[in-house]
Amino acid sequence: MKSYYLGVDGGQSSTTALIADETGRVIGRGRGGPCNHVSTVEGREKFFSAVGSCLEQACQQAGLDASTVSFAAVCLGLSGGAEDKDAYARELIRSRRYKITHDAEIALAGATAGEPGIVVIAGTGSIAFGWNAKNETARAGGWGYIFGDEGGAFDLTKRALRAALAFEEGWGPETVLYRLLLAETGAASANQLMRRWYSAFDRSAVAAFAELVARAAEGKDAVALKILDEAAEFLTWYIQGVYQRLFTASEIVPVAHIGGVFQSAHLREKLTQNVLLAIGCPVGASRFSPVAGALLEALRLDGNRNQPFDPAEQ
Predict the structure, then answer these.
(1) Which CATH number covers residue 10?
(2) For burial by CB atoms within 10 Å, which of 53, 66, 157, 166 has the most?
(3) DSSP characters for 125-175?
(4) Do both 146 and 271 map to the same domain?
């Protein structure tokens, strides 16, 4: 009887799933909406819909019956933590073995192919997570948009709007961010845009405007460059905090970056420079995606040492 493995990456903006056979070859893929909250009836409905839809799509592509399939092992990495979603995940998915964890852990598993190291994630929010050869783990950041998430997309947009407001009110330097924000949103003023975002608050929608900071920085806008430099500094502090808790001062481990804000070449370069100066470790892209990291963890949970292989990515 064949063994099948499932990896799921459940995030704030979308959910993805991969099914692999016992060789690690990906045979099914699925995609759904966000599944990061289950505290309300609506949140639970979204969770079941997103994960269920992913599973259905992946099983259909793999030639499996989603209503009857039982996996050898599954790993779900879920934004916002796993504790309140554990029972719902087990209700949706049949498996001999389960690993239900947070999204930073599967991101690291994918980033280093399961080896010791650190991953820094900067999407809508931000967090750094690492583990060492003793399987000890540490994290820094990930406190949410009110008390943290420095260097994430929402934070970049917030800083851009603050800079635009400062320029509009006459107490801040001129910045192209002012013109870009108004042009992209159709707002008549930065003040109007601020009030609009307050009244119709959607973190993901606001975070999407972070790419304007990268665009302005490419044009050498001094304010945008400063925002990105400060973001790189915050993210470096997160990485340094994780490193100091897990590794010796001379230990060289890979540091990987994941998330939309790293589409900015300036931010990537600044982060690489800062981390090299702070802890002497190289910074680079991840070896596998977070959902492939979840699949890798599912394989290892069953004692299977194969690595995920996705023909669609070759």
Answers:
(1) 3.30.420.40
(2) 157
(3) SEEEEEE-TT--EEEEE---TTT--TTSHHHHHHHHHHHHHHHHTTSS---
(4) yes
Beta bridge partners of 30: 17
Instruction: Provide the domain limits for residue 33.
Output: 5-113+288-313
Instruction: Tell me the two tokens of residue 74.
Output: 């599954």
- If asked whether residues 157 and 171 sit together in one domain, one would say yes
CA distances from 161 to 104, 176, 186, 226, 263 (A): 28, 11, 14, 14, 20
Closest CA to 164 of 234, 216, 235, 229: 216
Residues 196, 76, single domain; the answer is no
Per-residue pLDDT of the chain (314 residues; tens, 9 = 90+): 789 999 999 877 788 999 999 999 999 999 988 776 666 777 677 778 888 888 999 999 999 998 889 999 999 998 776 677 778 888 889 999 999 998 889 999 999 988 899 999 998 889 999 999 998 999 999 887 788 789 999 999 999 999 999 999 999 999 999 999 999 999 999 999 999 888 877 788 888 899 999 999 999 999 999 999 999 999 999 999 999 999 998 899 999 999 889 999 999 999 999 999 999 999 988 888 899 999 999 999 999 998 887 776 65
Structure tokens at 44: 């639970």
pTM: 0.84
Q: Based on the domain organization, do 74 and 154 belong to the same domain? A: no
Same domain, 193 and 294: no
Q: Is 176 found in the same domain as 200?
A: yes
Domain count, the chain: 2
Q: Is the Cβ–Cβ distance between 270 and 298 less than 8 Å? A: no
Can you give the C-alpha Rg of the chain in angstroms? 21
> CA–CA separation, 140 vs 14, rounded Å?
23
Contact in structure between 46 and 37 (CB atoms under 8 Å)? yes
